[in-house]
């Protein structure tokens, strides 16, 4: 018997095997699937368990921006084809988020499938290259003042001339921020941004509006007004009347302007008379709420004293008590200052933070605007009493804030000796008074820039960093935008009057002392300071 045999073929071909990612490195480092603060030309090394089919790579390995746009890649295959080096064809954008997706569209040369998709999150770091040509420090200060002044000059309300609360406020103007803007006009004349006649005309427009249209309550102005009608715009449901602190910021500006426009021509004389009428009409003593030894912040024609907020130190309101004591018509006795503002010395601190003793105020000093708003016109270099030397108070407060940011205990990306300053500002999806005890990872340029008189070297370093390094992110039509976070990253597009004003004014006080000289030359202010025991 002849027997012949042969091998029987399996009609079902074998399935291609799956393959996996063996290793992932970005710039030579493995950090799992999240990479922060890398350079703009990252080198991404991928190692797989099988040889990769090059035809599948364009769909299988994709890099995209957080906006969804695709980033072209260049791919280099190593000799065994299991290892790939991936890079973007062009540099990425600094401080942006990207996603690297390795999907099942990736195949091996044997037809194998990359079964489990992998998502790698990447965030670029800071681009430290200069965004603008280098200019002298003096020219840079002038540039910042000029651009920032544009917020009050070019963007001032067309009817009233008052400052809009923020760049998105429409007809809502702010009394306190307008006071800062009024103080900025003598600075602008001094720096030749505008002429003296232009400055006089704008302030007269503002003063006429305040005297004839703006609602007042016992001589005090509300926080917000309608820029065309002068009617109150409620700041909150029960805050629809007088705001004494905002009024003091406005009066501070008006008195400085009165001292600046001191000429004998009829226009300047008329301006001084009109300012004096507004100044004398404020019933500071009425805000003692039935004769108490403290001033109250708010009063409403509908809700009376229901907010019931005492103006009690330490905060931004020293100027309120100084002007109340200085009033020629509605003054307050020293006991109101002693018991209300100082709380009979209860506003003392005396503790040490970041190696620095803080004479007054809350732990770590609080937000930096406490060292700014009252001292736009009050010269802390000439101010001391039994509690403190006020320049020491403000310098120490600022240095604590600076050193805290430099130490960066919460490890927010970007904080440094060049990037510092916590104060009230916009934050993502809101607004807060940032400080070392309320640190959200958000830096506000006004914090360091309005601190120039206290920390000139540290503030200049911050200014250069904001302008040259972050200028493509935060420098705009009216100077620096309100705030930013390099950690998130996030960059505000907003401008706020109360943050813009102190930048102009405190830089000028450091450069020439002009604004300090103006307010401190007021006879009433000298009298008020003396009355309160401030030497």
TrEMBL record:
One Pfam family it belongs to: Big_5
InterPro entries in alphabetical order: Glycoamylase-like_cons_dom, SbsA_Ig
Native species: Salmonirosea aquatica
Domain Glycoamylase-like: residue ranges: 310-523
Lineage: Bacteria, Pseudomonadati, Bacteroidota, Cytophagia, Cytophagales
Domain SbsA Ig-like: 34-112
Name used for this protein in its record: Beta-glucosidase
Keywords noted in UniProt: Signal
